[in-house]
Amino acid sequence: MVGRGVGSGTGLSQRASPGASPSGGRAQAAASRPSEKNVAAATGFPARLQRAVAALATLGPTDPATPVRLWCQDETRVGLHLPVGRRISARGTKPIRVTAPVYQYYWRYAAVQPACGAAFWLELPALDTTCFPVFLERFGAHDPQSFHILVLDNAPAHIARAVAPPANVVLVNLPPYCPELNPVERLWQGLKRYLTDRATTRFTLDTLRQTVDHFIQTITTQQLASLTNFPYLQKIMKYNFG
Fold first, then answer.
1. Residue 129 domain-assigned (yes or no)
2. With 0-12 CB in 10 A as exposed, 13-18 as middle and 19+ as buried, what is 142?
3. Can you say whether the dihedral through the CA atoms of 199, 125, 185, 166 is positive or negative?
4. Which CATH number goes with the domain that contains 72?
5. Is residue 166 part of a domain?
6. Residue 134 sits in which domain range?
7. pLDDT of amino acid 238
């Protein structure tokens, strides 16, 4: 697996080649089971997370002096079929924009530490049980001296039995169908607005990558913390040693 750093001051960003995986094969994620949002589970998640983090901070690291870091994680598909943003035109004139669907894309993975705005980014070709373990391996290796608690959703690749995080990473799943509890969703909203505002000419996949890389390089830790430091996460800040 060959990675390429983008040089972001907010964290580490890498690009992984599409043909490699830790298992060498193309494993399939388990099919998601249809369910509905559990309002009680969503309401009770902040307290559950606080208890889980307290327990993991005590029992997880082998050395009591090991820093414990709380992260939130998500992925987004980045492709040439971008949403059409608003356009300015004269009063009474309907703006016209020629578009054509182009289905070329890749995936951006991100983990953000809301307490301080630190971030880890990785580009991969898919979201599945081949690529997600690559992300976990790289994520755990970028700061091997710390114990990382990673809050993430229930995408099939995240809950597949084949996925085993490294020893210094533990996964805490959000309740199903609760994107409002994942602050990284706000980061993707900002990225897509950034891309839409700059889509004055048609992107190629290379120019799209360059634009996304520029977003990663220029967003600051202060901006990331402002976007992701949700009030329910602030209550457990004592477990964030930035």
1. yes
2. middle
3. negative
4. 3.30.420.10
5. yes
6. 11-18+45-83+100-237
7. 60
Residue 239's pLDDT band (boundaries 50, 70, 90)?
low
Q: Is 199 helix (H, G, I), strand (E, B) or coil?
A: coil
- Rounded to the nearest integer, the mean pLDDT of the chain is 84
- Total domain count, the chain: 1
Q: From CA 63, how far away is CA 75, in angstroms rounded?
A: 31
- pLDDT category, 101, cuts 50, 70, 90? low
Token representation of residue 71:
């992260």
pLDDT value of residue 26:
45
Section 93-107 average pLDDT: 75
Q: What are the Cα distances from residue 40, in Å, to 43, 48, 151, 154, 173?
A: 5, 12, 19, 17, 15
92 within some domain = no
The 10s digit of each residue's pLDDT in 40-97 is 999 999 999 999 999 998 888 888 889 999 999 999 999 887 555 566 777 877 776 6
Q: CA 81, CA 100: separation in Å to the nearest integer?
A: 8
d(CA 182, CA 144) in angstroms, rounded, equals 24
Are the beta carbons of 160 and 136 closer than 8 angstroms? Answer: no
Mention every residue, 6+ apart, whose C-beta is less than 8 A from residue 68. 53, 56, 57, 60, 61, 146, 147, 149, 239, 240, 241
The percentage of residues in the chain with a pLDDT greater than 90, rounded to a whole number, is: 60
Write out the two tokens for 132: 């997600």
Q: Are 111 and 236 in contact (CB under 8 A)?
A: no
